[in-house]
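Batch manifest, entry 17 of 40.
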Amino acid sequence: MASTELTLKGLRVFRAVARNGSLQATAQQTGLSISTVSHHLSRLEAHLATPLIDHDRRPMVPTPAGLQYLAAVEQALTALDRAEAVLNRANPGTLQRLRFAMIDDFEHEIGPDITRMLASSLPGCQFTHLTRVSHEILELLRVGDLDIGLATQPITPPPNMLELPLLRDPFVLAVPAHLDHSADDLIHGRTDLPFLRYNRNQIIGHMVAAQLNRLRLSLPHMFELDSTTSLMALIAEGEGWAITTPSNYTRAKRFQPQITLLPFPGKEFARTISIFVALPQAEDFARDIASAMRSLLATQAVGPAVAKYPWLRDSYRLID
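Output type: structure tokens
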């Protein structure tokens, strides 16, 4: 067997195919053509004289030999990534690509500052900045299509990622300004004002639904929305109320005069906003992002909200 046939690219392609279950998904993830992905995989299998992937299955899966080899490949690539991370800490200019995503909760107020910071810190680096909802960011990190993501912490911690918690964002009630009903009346359905619900496919919507289930509360709803902006617009128009967070209220600046926040009645619950790192080489940059984010959140989110609603002081806070 010629040792020149064993390439780092081939090993990474094999790992990606084993994870993704298809050549097409691997091509999309790696930026290679499907024929190039197939070529790298075929060369590796020829070099080992062993089928590594069951090409007849859909989705494609590793063969028994492929599973054994994949375990060794994972260890080897992890070791190489760690070694590269050490070099990058000593010489940040060696990082060639960084893919970053942020939830839209902070995109307009904080996103431009973070983008400028990263662009100036990474000369010569190909930098990609995306905006997605939390569960999509976590999935992109999982499959290797992102390096760093700012997202809501999921109920089950994502494996093989570094997490840097940033913000405790408590759930509150957002209601039309000057509403006569109490938070307790709303949460127990003793008003005619409709409950506006986040889409339960989102992490935030799932968390709200789970809390209502724990409290054995069933609230009829007219709308189930993905967009916080749309939800806040309906509240401002007096069309309903919602269980949301101070961060979502803070970003909806134009609707704030028509909206009032109330403490969640009974047992408090909160979401955690964190930075997740899938690429070991990007750990130092992720910590830089976290430090900058905390400063920006303090002045643009936490500070203004606590100033207007002092009862948030202990619950809406940065996590060091």
